[in-house]
């Protein structure tokens, strides 16, 4: 990771040309400009990466290295001790740790499946049909991108308790179905499906639901991945939003926070659980990056 | 006689014509709605939930903000009392709004520019380097609640990286209680917030830059664009205005919503409320004190503040690149 970070800084001349073959085709590029911009990228890139590098290293440090003065960034004698300590700790919890894992996996999975299906179903008519109220409905969704969910948190508690969903998984899952950024991105992406494709299906006798399910849905797979990763990020890190009280329903994030906040005695196990928690979304992103970028290309807001 | 009857007929004619015309506008609408039955059915599940968990809560907040409501008794109408209390009596709210505006004024524009500048530089790299650097810059915002790693960096004892380094080179002799000292709290939260801020907006810019038509650059070079800065202003920015507007909404909304980082790093409540934001204030009254009317007033102010700023910024961005 570090070696790659250094690349833009080091042997500028030939390396740079290897790095950016576009440069030959592109005019208007001064060498000093390119050099200083890459230096900026390298420095800020290091700032972005260092805390994560530190988190990774901490997880493999033996306890005496975590409390070393002066503190070090990189581990000297890497060990798996923190992970085995974590396992030890987990076997002693009142609620079996696998239960926390199940809770988070269930909430994340159910939330994502429901959201992708509902948001795509709603995005399809908004992108491809003409009907009264379309502009109005879509502008409300855009408006809802402009404020934080914190605004709605308190009334949501009342609504969820009125629906009898408080202290169930559904208190976190059902509101996630209606996540507005997902609908927005899906709708923008669907607009680029050629109308001819839909017309052809219609002539072949397919009804709207069939068109949606077997023509539109397979064509928006990149957008699925984007919705999945955006919602994954939210639900994976969810601590229950204050809607879940029962210990056996609490999320992985909540449980690991207890370990992380455990102070000095738990420092090693805390670093290990933090590494595990953070690597899951990052790995997911690594594998879906190109599809997500493809979706984001259509994310623009028209005047 | 005849004349007048003709006139009458003439007068009646347009009236008769207008009536069915007005009728038919509605019937056309109704026909349209009937014809789009399938659209509404597809929309319905999402829209019902969206109404239930977004539209209804905002409306409820606005209504409750004019009441006293503690979740036990029925809401009691109190007029503008909550708002006058908020702005005239609640000193902590004024701190909160000052901090929130500070976050919005600093992290909003800085993170927006950072998103764009780094997306712009990264765009010049080869595809593999581009993917790698995108990951480096995007990773903090996606890695869940990893920001607590900054707790270790700014930890108050000498094992924290910041204290350790500064003591080693002799700038300070004793460890500093970074997160318990009022003067340091805000700058540290701003720093962490910036670290976390290259998220969805950043990805949208990376994607937007890749869609800019390459031939425009060649045409620009022929037409006298002399350096990368002119190219940026005259070609790149106008070509990706839609992404710029989307990114602005995302960055601005995030910068107004600072709460989790403040709570995780500075505690809740923070030392002398130094890190109180409108959202933490809302959490305080909504989930700790159960003063729902008052909390609703805070939520309404926050809502107005965010939507208002966003709409103004959208207007301004329409002018980018001439």
TrEMBL record, chain B:
GO terms for biological process: transmembrane transport. SUPFAM superfamilies: MetI-like. Keywords: Cell membrane, Membrane, Transmembrane, Transmembrane helix, Transport. Belongs to the binding-protein-dependent transport system permease family. It is a multi-pass membrane protein. CDD domains: TM_PBP2. One of its GO terms (cellular component) is plasma membrane. Residues 97-313 form the ABC transmembrane type-1 domain. It comes from the Bacteria. InterPro entries: ABC_transporter_permease, MetI-like, MetI-like_sf. The chain crosses the membrane at residues 40-69, 101-123, 135-155, 184-207, 244-268, 292-313. This is Sugar ABC transporter permease. It is found in: Cell membrane. Its main location: membrane.
């Amino acid at each position: 990771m570090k070696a790659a970070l250094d690349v833009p800084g080091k042997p500028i001349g030939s390396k740079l040309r290897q790095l950016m073959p576009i440069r030959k085709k592109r005019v208007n590029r001064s060498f000093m400009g390119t050099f200083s911009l890459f230096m900026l990228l390298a420095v800020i890139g290091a700032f972005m990466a260092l805390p994560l590098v530190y988190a990774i290293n901490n997880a493999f440090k033996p306890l005496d290295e975590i409390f070393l003065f002066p503190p070090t960034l990189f581990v000297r004698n890497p060990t798996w001790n923190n992970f085995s300590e974590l396992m030890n700790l987990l076997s002693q919890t009142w609620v079996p740790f696998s239960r926390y894992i199940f809770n988070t996996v269930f909430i994340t999975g159910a939330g994502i499946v429901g959201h992708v299906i509902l948001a795509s179903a709603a995005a399809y008519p908004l992108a491809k049909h003409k009907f009264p109220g379309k502009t109005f409905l879509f502008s409300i969704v855009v408006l809802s991108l402009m404020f934080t969910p914190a605004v709605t948190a308190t009334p949501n508690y009342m609504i969820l308790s009125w629906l009898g969903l408080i202290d169930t998984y559904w208190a976190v899952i059902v509101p996630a179905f209606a996540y507005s950024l997902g609908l927005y991105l899906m709708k923008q992406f669907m607009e680029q499906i050629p109308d001819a494709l839909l017309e052809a299906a219609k002539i072949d006798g397919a009804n709207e639901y069939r068109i949606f399910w077997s023509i539109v849905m397979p064509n928006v797979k990149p957008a699925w991945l984007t919705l999945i990763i955006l919602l994954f990020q939210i639900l994976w890190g969810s601590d229950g939003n204050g809607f879940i009280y029962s210990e056996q329903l609490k999320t992985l994030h909540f449980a690991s926070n207890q370990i992380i906040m455990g102070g000095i005695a738990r420092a090693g196990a805390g670093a290990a659980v933090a590494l595990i928690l953070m690597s899951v979304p990052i790995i997911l992103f690594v594998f879906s990056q190109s599809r997500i970028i493809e979706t984001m290309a259509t994310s623009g807001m028209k005047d | 006689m005849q004349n007048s009857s003709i006139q009458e007929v003439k007068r009646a004619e347009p009236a008769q014509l207008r009536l069915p015309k007005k009728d038919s506008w509605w019937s056309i609408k109704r026909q349209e709605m009937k014809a789009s039955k399938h659209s509404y059915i597809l929309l319905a599940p999402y829209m019902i939930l969206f109404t239930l968990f977004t539209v209804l809560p905002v409306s409820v907040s606005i209504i409750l903000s004019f009441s006293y409501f503690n979740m036990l008794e029925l809401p009691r109408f109190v007029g503008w009392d909550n708002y006058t209390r908020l702005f005239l009596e609640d000193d902590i709210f004024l701190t909160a709004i000052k901090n929130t505006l500070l976050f919005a004024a600093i992290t909003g524009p800085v993170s927006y520019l950072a998103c764009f500048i780094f997306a712009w530089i990264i765009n010049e790299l080869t595809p593999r380097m581009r993917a790698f650097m995108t990951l480096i810059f995007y990773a903090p915002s996606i890695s869940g609640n990893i920001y607590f790693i900054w707790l270790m960096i700014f930890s108050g004892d000498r094992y924290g990286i910041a204290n350790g380094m500064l003591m080693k080179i002799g700038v300070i002799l004793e460890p500093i209680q970074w997160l318990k000292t009022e003067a340091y709290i805000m700058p540290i939260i701003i720093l962490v917030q910036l670290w976390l801020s290259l998220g969805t907006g950043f990805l949208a810019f990376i994607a937007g830059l890749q869609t800019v038509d390459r031939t425009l650059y060649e045409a620009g070079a022929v037409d006298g664009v002399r350096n990368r800065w002119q190219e940026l202003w005259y070609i790149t920015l106008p070509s990706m205005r839609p992404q710029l507007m989307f990114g602005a909404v995302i960055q601005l909304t995030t910068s107004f919503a600072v709460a989790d980082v403040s709570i995780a790093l500075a505690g809740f409540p923070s030392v002398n409320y130094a890190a109180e934001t409108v959202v933490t204030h809302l959490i305080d009254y909504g989930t700790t004190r159960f003063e729902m009317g008052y909390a609703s007033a805070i939520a309404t102010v926050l809502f107005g503040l965010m939507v208002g700023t966003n709409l103004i910024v959208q207007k301004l961005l329409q002018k980018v690149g001439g």
